[in-house]
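Hey,
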Amino acid sequence: MGILPDDLYDYAKAEAWPCMGRPINCDVESWTVTDDWPERVPITGAEIDVFEAWFGDLFDELFGPC
């Protein structure tokens, strides 16, 4: 391993690069939010397994054990 440079985090002090494309419209009154999701979103058993593995303790705390 080499020695890290002293200015490793200098990128945080740099000015932001100009954004490409048209400017962002910051007037939230003119925004339109649309929902094109189906009424029921299908999920797989593998997706349920992942949520149970990562959030099982939280689910048990909120909804009680199965």
